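<purpose> Linking amino acid order to shape
<body> The protein record starts here
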Amino acid sequence: MPTKISRSKNTEQDDEIIITPTQVRQTALNLLARREHSYYELKQKLQQRNYPLELITEQLDRLKSQGLINETRFIENFVRSRTQKGYGPIRISAELHQRGISTELIEEFVNSTAEHWIELAKQACIKRFGKKIPKDFAERAKQVRFLQYRGFGFEQIKYISRDNLALDE
């Protein structure tokens, strides 16, 4: 059923636009055509376009039931993308949480790739600082801060410590 939306804040002008479920669906599909989105992200983007919440929910639920919105697929793509950019599990988890993904799903996907985090931290450190061993505490602290910012945990940082593990292995 079409819904009327007033686009003008000026009460003297009665500038109403009729929004149909098809328009909401098409906008959501256009967003999904560019990249995977979580349900929450799509809801936020459609609300920013001033679509009525009941139409948004109705259409997103329909897309989800048709398999066009898939949280699992979104998480897999997101985790792959972020790990390729050198981000660690803490940062990836926080970004997924901001995108409305449940804690259980986040833990399932972030922990499923746990064996790769140490190697990924090692690669990020080499890419940024090279293979040279830090000369003093200040340089080491700089590397640790970098890895923390990238979202690596204490255990990963400790494991790749230049004092305990040669990076050229």
